[in-house]
């Protein structure tokens, strides 16, 4: 009886002899939630933007709705913004801090970003030679600190008709960028259209920031200046 029971059990359960391996149980494959490669975080390019009120936000437009933040969302950046309203390459503004000082205080101690954007000149109503010197010193500082970081310079942003002194300041910044082999983007003559300027006549509306962001995304792509990632 015992031998017959064993035979019946083996027929049902698929017992194998010692020299003939039976079927290997198949385990359920890991689900997507259990796949460590699929769940590993994707590294977004780190982009730092140093600028004035156009970057930091002004009026009803907060920092996270500025053109820089909108461009970051479009291109999938990890964004760090620095600087303050009223500041420039030379002008310290109410915060008493030029772009160079803001760079030293807010950015220089951080790990190297993939892209650094310096955006300003709007508040630098002074001798173009001073602006040139300050812009070039900041570029040298940034490249010395982060030699592998891509750098882009954006000239003065003016949503309406600019004052007569602005083109000379724009040119001074452009020369500094050129001498440091840096991409220079010039938004000065770009038409921003109706509804782009706040009632103060200077700063962008939400719509203005959206148009600025679209311009920046296009300009970075045209110059091949997007960060890798």
UniProtKB/TrEMBL annotation:
Question: InterPro entries from the xrefs?
Answer: Ester_Hydrolysis_Enzymes, SGNH_hydro, SGNH_hydro_sf
Question: Is the keyword Signal assigned to this protein?
Answer: yes
What are the entry keywords? Hydrolase, Signal
Q: Which domain of life is it from?
A: Bacteria
The residues the entry assigns to the signal sequence are 1-20
Instruction: List GO molecular-function terms, semicolon-separated.
Output: hydrolase activity
Alphabetized CDD domains for the sequence: SGNH_hydrolase
Query: Per the record's keyword annotation, is Hydrolase included, yes or no?
Result: yes
Domain called SGNH hydrolase-type esterase: residue spans: 49-211
Q: What is this protein called?
A: SGNH/GDSL hydrolase family protein
Q: Which species?
A: Streptosporangium jomthongense
């Amino acid at each position: 009886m015992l031998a017959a029971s064993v035979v019946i059990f083996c027929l049902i359960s698929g017992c194998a002899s010692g020299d003939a391996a039976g079927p290997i149980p198949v385990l359920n494959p890991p689900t997507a939630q259990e796949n460590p490669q699929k769940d590993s975080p994707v590294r977004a390019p780190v982009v730092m933007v140093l600028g004035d009120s156009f970057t930091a936000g002004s009026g009803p437009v907060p920092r996270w709705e500025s053109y820089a933040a909108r461009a970051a969302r479009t291109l999938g950046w990890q964004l760090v913004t620095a600087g303050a309203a009223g500041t420039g390459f030379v002008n310290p503004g109410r915060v008493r801090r030029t772009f160079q000082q803001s760079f030293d205080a807010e950015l220089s101690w951080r790990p190297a970003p993939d892209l650094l954007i310096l955006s300003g000149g709007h508040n630098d109503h002074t001798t173009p030679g001073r602006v040139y010197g300050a812009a070039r010193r900041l570029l040298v500082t940034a490249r010395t600190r982060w030699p592998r970081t891509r750098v882009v310079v954006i000239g003065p942003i003016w949503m309406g008709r600019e004052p007569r002194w602005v083109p000379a300041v724009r040119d001074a910044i452009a020369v500094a960028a050129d001498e440091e082999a840096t991409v220079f983007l010039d938004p000065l003559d770009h038409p921003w259209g109706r509804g782009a300027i706040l009632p103060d006549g200077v700063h962008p509306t939400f719509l203005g920031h959206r148009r600025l962001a679209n311009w920046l995304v296009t300009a970075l792509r045209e110059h091949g200046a997007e960060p890798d990632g």
